[in-house]
Design goal:
Elements lengths: L2 H13 L6 H13 L2 H18 L56 E2 L2 E2 L5 E8 L2 E8 L2 E8 L29 E5 L5 E10 L2 E8 L4 H9 E2 L4 E2 L4 E3 L7 E8 L6 E9 L6 E8 L11 E3 L2 E6 L4 E4 L5 E6 L9 H9 L1 E3 L10
Antiparallel strand pairs: 1-10, 2-9, 3-4, 3-12, 4-5, 5-8, 6-7, 7-8, 11-19, 12-13, 13-14, 14-18, 15-16, 16-17, 17-18
Helix pairs in contact: 1-2
Length: 353
């Protein structure tokens, strides 16, 4: 068991009500993570950030975990799917949805070109990266992973919602609404559907369960006549010359207890600046001492790790990790990003984002 496994194991044991089959939880989580090496740094950063802030104070009660056993499907990504508070990404006013501009799907990492009906599924997380817009959704306690792209080639070879040990279900060029399936871990069936919800828009969805009905429920609730901002309560309005936002991911599954936002700023230089906003009701420390100022605001930098934090956000940490020289960016670059960061005033009120 590595350090990551131990931290997750410890947190689960401390927060769980009753017994927890941690071996099973860790096995599934680790196997899925190893199959997605390119995504692991992003997802692990957000999830571990949420785990860290959940464990930072005593303001949060025990997290309810699903019972273990062969017939139980775990929610992803490693977070409870129990209905808590419904969080929606804020609308991007004036931006056309995927139906009107299918070519823009996945082209702007700060925009989701889709949404759902008011009575549709609850978001667990959403993201935009590498030409793909994705959402993990809670549908009656089961997790459906939806991916949208402007071309079939833009979708990763392996669907994001598939467990690592499941046989390959992706079909080349088949987006006719058909559903494929295979037996997953512990005998739970895995279902995968490919379809085109609008001309020029390619969709793929997966779910673990007894049948494929959740895939059709998500498709029925999908709306392509709207657009939303990926960053939620965080906007980056200033970037170093020659860079752009290349990745955005938001995890809201445990809200209102916590949520995490991660955005990556990159350019021709290898690496990137990883910007994170971590909010949790358990955060009690209010740092008042810094060793830098950015735009008149106190900031704290750890020169050895290359992490910059802008202070002054109640129950939240806003950081920029430039990791110089490994990441290829400098303290000045990180200061530019943090200096232009706009954070919603009421982080506990998603409707105001």
């Amino acid at each position: 068991m590595n350090d990551l496994d131990q931290r997750i194991d410890q947190t689960l044991r401390e927060r769980a009500e009753g017994s927890v089959d941690t071996d099973r939880l860790l096995t599934v989580a680790v196997s899925q993570g190893r199959a997605r090496i390119r995504r692991r740094r992003t997802v692990a950063g957000i999830v571990l950030g949420v785990v860290a802030v959940l464990g930072a104070g005593a303001a949060i009660g025990p997290v309810k975990l699903p019972e273990s056993g062969p017939g139980v499907v775990l929610p992803g990504p490693g977070l409870p799917a129990d209905p808590v508070v419904r969080v929606l990404p804020p609308r991007a006013d004036g931006v056309p949805g995927a139906a009107a501009r299918p070519d823009r799907v996945g082209a702007d990492p700060d925009v989701l070109h889709f949404g759902f009906a008011p009575d549709g599924p609850r978001y667990l997380s959403w993201s935009v990266q590498s030409g793909v817009e994705m959402a993990r959704l809670d549908v009656g306690g089961r997790t459906v992973t939806l991916e949208l792209a402007a071309s079939a080639d833009a979708l990763p070879r392996r669907a994001q919602g598939l467990p690592a040990l499941v046989p390959e279900l992706v079909k080349d060029g088949v987006f006719d609404g058909s559903v494929s399936h295979a037996e997953g871990p512990y005998g739970v069936m895995v279902w995968l559907r490919h379809w085109q919800p609008a001309p020029g828009v390619y969709a793929r969805a997966s779910v673990n369960g007894a049948d494929e009905r959740d895939l059709f429920d998500v498709a029925a609730a999908l709306r392509l006549d709207q657009a939303h901002r990926c960053g939620g309560p965080l906007r980056l309005t200033a970037l170093p010359a020659g860079t752009q936002i290349s990745r955005c991911e938001v995890t809201v599954a445990p809200f209102p207890a916590a949520f995490g936002v991660q955005m990556v700023v990159s350019g021709p230089t290898p690496g990137g600046i990883q910007v994170e906003l971590q909010y949790a009701t358990s955060i009690t420390d209010s740092r008042t001492g810094g060793n830098r100022t950015i735009g008149g605001k106190l900031a704290l930098i750890d020169s050895q790790s290359g992490k910059f934090e802008l202070l002054g956000f109640p129950k939240a940490h806003l950081t920029a990790d430039f990791g110089w020289p490994v990441q290829g960016y400098t303290e000045d670059d990180a200061a530019v990003v943090l200096g232009g960061a706009q954070v919603a005033e009421h982080l506990d009120q998603p409707t105001t984002w």
